[in-house]
Amino acid sequence: LADPENPAIVTPSWGGFSRAHTIHIDQASATAYVAGRNGTGGVLILRLTQPMAPTVAGMWDVAYVHDMFVRDGRMYAAAINQGKCYILNIANLAVPTVLGVIANYPDAFTHNVWATGDGSHVLTTDERAGAVVRMWDVSDPVHPEQTSFWSSFTTGRAIPHNVHVDGNLAYVSYYTAGVRVLDIAD
Predict the structure, then answer these.
(1) How many CA atoms lie within 13 A of 130 on its CB side?
(2) What does the DSSP assignment read for 72-85?
(3) C-alpha angle 22/73/172, rounded to 5°?
(4) 116-153 pLDDT tens trace
């Protein structure tokens, strides 16, 4: 991407998977996290120290992971089909371990997850009509606790898609209802 207007295809390409739903790259550690590979996979973890020849650092295939967020040795894995968000310790990339699970709440169909700047909370979206955006206290990852939820729609039919956090703002996209920006300072 040296010239973003004219990206160059890397050859030979790496054939470790044919498609993925989400790829998160931690530039500081030169690590890629590939979710939903080939439509069924959990998370494949790749070292990119040599981007032309990535190496497998680890894998977590307990559930299909649709989306994930990674920061500070933790991975939050949105397992949409199970309606769960797994909180994983990834200090050892070869052996990710489950610290806790967010589950068993109304409309659980965990499509997306994103952490606040300080990592004490995560926000999740459930890709269902009328679902709300939920905030969870994950300061104790073994016992995550819902702290709040939000929806601006009185009709209850809007479908939340993704939430992304930047500072004290959460950007929530909806399939047919545009974008809402939430102040999450408190």
Answers:
(1) 6
(2) TTEEEEEEGGGTEE
(3) 45
(4) 999 999 999 999 888 889 999 999 999 999 998 888 66
Question: Tens digits of per-residue pLDDT, 20-62?
Answer: 999 999 998 999 999 998 888 899 999 999 888 899 999 999 9
Please state, in angstroms and rounded to a whole number, the distance separating the CA atoms of residues 41 and 21. 10
- The dihedral sign for the CA sequence 53, 29, 75, 22: negative
**Global confidence as pTM:** 0.91
Sign of the Cα pseudo-torsion (174, 36, 33, 87, in order): positive
CA atoms within 13 A on the CB side of 170: 28
DSSP type of residue 11: S
Write down the residue that tokens 């307990």 correspond to.
62
Distance set, CA 144 to CA 17, 85, 122, 136, 163 (Å): 33, 10, 10, 6, 19
Nearest to 124 by CA among 152, 154, 145: 145
Q: Are 153 and 177 in contact (CB under 8 A)?
A: yes
User: How many whole angstroms separate alpha carbon 41 and alpha carbon 108?
Assistant: 20
